[in-house]
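Appendix B. Raw example, untouched.
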Amino acid sequence: MNLDVRVRAVQATVRRVVRDVIGPAAREVDAESRFPTVGVEALARAGVGGLLVPPALGGSGDSRLAWVVAVEEVAAGCGSTSLVFANQMHAAHPLVAFGTPAQQARHVPGLVDCSRYGSVAITEPDAGSDAASLRTVARRFDGGYQLSGTKTFITSGDRADVVVVFATVDHTRGAAGVTAFLVERGAPGFSVGRTLRKLGMHGSSTAELHFDDCPVPASCRLGEEGEGFRMLVETMATSRLSAAAQGVGLARAAWSATAAHLAARLDPRHRDGQEEQFALAGGRARIAAARSLLHRAAVAVDDAVARGEPAPLTEVAMAKQHCTDLAVEVIPELMALLGGDGDRVDLEVERHLRDARVLPIFDGTNQIQRMLVARDNHRRLTGVAP
């Protein structure tokens, strides 16, 4: 897909920040589990911290195509930085779409310029991809609500100044009871539990959050009661595109590192090294095809939003599943081409693989994505929604 002038400008800006700031620090961010503040703030200073946020709230109001291009570039430089960078937008999105002017003014500009960090708290110990089964409860009381429950695997949860918390006001209503709330750092009854050690994405912190009769004023409810599930669906259309872009970026980075290391053996005029040549050629084509699918999905979401229609979740699901599976399939193949050098830390391919392993799991497992596509297949073949 040809990128327009604005998208190419965003890509060039992000590439410059990755080259000058993010890439040089990536190995230390991973090795020291260092939160990538410097890289994320550099992106904000470069004007790409609020790509999907309207200019009135401090952003640039760009397309989702520009967004996925930017996330791919950051992921190619550092997976951890891409996750924190994307998470800022994931926290801002429901505020932009559903927040009151007062809520937006208080939180969104800080998320854009990274003077404030945000999190989205959905996953629970007993409720992951099935958001309709949330056990965190919001009990009404005079003037607001009390939140009680535990969230886990919350990206930037220990750093967040504001958390978009999804809870239920009525377990018996299922998805219709899910409601969103804004909880700020230091609120009574809100505490951060343990931070979780992970295989990859070491620079991006992941935490447990506890709510013990945490009082939330009615003014901090985001949207209406029962509107949370629709909010989740809309937010996930963006976050799943982010995961897909990370898959493409990490696979691309691993391919580039492998090709550079094997460059002396890749002269196509000679048969020596032909196996590696063919494998790299195949990997390059697969990465390019995944990127095309990702771009198509991003444009489809942009077009739907422009028409005032719901995001095409099947297109998003296919991109998320395919691009993240691509990363965990192609990178081990590249490591095999490197032989004994495959797990060398200095080549960084092993880091890209570790960072990629989580992608098929978060933002709705890839099994969930396949289920969404299967349902759409059924509807297309039978004309009946399953």
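End of appendix B.
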